[in-house]
Design a protein that fits this description.
There is one protein chain. The protein is mainly alpha-helical and 248 residues long. It has one domain. Helices cover 60% and strands 3% of the residues. A two-stranded antiparallel sheet has the order 1-2. Strand 1 and strand 2 form a beta hairpin. Helix 2 crosses helix 3 and helix 3 packs antiparallel against helix 7. It starts with 26 loop residues before the first strand and ends in a 5-residue tail after the last helix. 27% of the residues are buried.
Length: 248
């Protein structure tokens, strides 16, 4: 199947940004639907890891924690403390699962991209890459954050929450709604850009020099990938916490 790739200079519609590609990619054709197989397969791997890790680590809980149990408890406590810092003592508890899932899914997705460019798994076209190096994935994460933002505010303050959109004057209603709706979108573009750039930086030396040479770059990629996941989850918690506060 031949796939036409869209170049930046051919974009005349904002919706075409989602079709911009770098390199070759594997697609599945399911009826009239074209599926980005690389993202889908790696996403399944990420989901499997996220499901298997806590099951394996906590299947034999001890009063005196083992190494794996210590690790899981440390991760959960870090997520809880970060969420509490951003949202406050009164509001954070119901949102720990959401923020934690957001952080862990982005973290594991980013790391999969830092490791898979070593061509562990060969595909007919291209190679497995992080789901977060696809703009559609990161925008979906941003939309989830937007939904959480509006839900948290309306759940906490009821219909009075929407009163802030006509302050200081009803004329600003469209602008205020647009501002809140698009607030998480810069997160998606930053995450997408950083992960894509990281994979390209790592992939070039891996394909042209002996395997041991790119290791420092891969380690740097793992570090920056972790920072990007932490940044996204922290700001998602901050935005959600902001919506529960009174309007000033």
């Amino acid at each position: 199947m031949h796939i036409e790739q869209l170049r930046i200079d051919e974009i005349d519609d904002p919706y075409q940004v989602s079709s911009v590609e770098v390199g070759q990619h594997l697609y599945w054709q399911i009826g009239d639907l074209q599926v980005h197989a690389q993202v889908l397969v790696t996403s399944w791997v990420v989901i499997a890891i996220l499901l298997a890790l806590p099951i394996v680590a906590t299947r034999n809980l001890q009063t005196i924690p083992t190494t794996s149990q210590n690790f899981i408890e440390y991760v959960l406590e870090s997520i809880r403390d970060s969420t509490r810092t951003q949202m406050g003592e009164e509001e954070y508890r119901p949102w720990v699962p959401f923020i934690g899932t957001m952080f862990l899914s982005i973290f594991v997705s980013n790391w999969s991209g830092a490791l898979f460019p070593r061509r562990i798994i060969q595909l007919p076209h291209g190679e497995l890459a992080a789901p977060t190096n696809d703009i559609n994935t990161t925008v979906a994460l941003a939309l989830l954050t937007s939904v959480a933002y509006f839900y948290a505010g309306s759940h906490k303050r009821g219909l009075s929450y929407f009163g802030k959109y006509i302050q200081p004057t009803p004329v600003l209603l469209p602008i205020n709604i647009l501002e809140d709706s698009t607030k998480p979108l810069p997160l998606s573009f930053r995450l997408f850009g950083n992960i894509l750039a990281d994979e390209l930086v790592v992939a070039v030396p891996v394909s042209s020099v002996p395997s041991i040479v790119p290791v420092p770059m891969m380690l740097l990629g793992l570090f920056t990938s972790a920072i990007q996941a932490l940044t996204f989850a922290t700001l998602a918690a901050a935005y959600t916490g902001e919506s529960t506060e009174g309007h000033h």
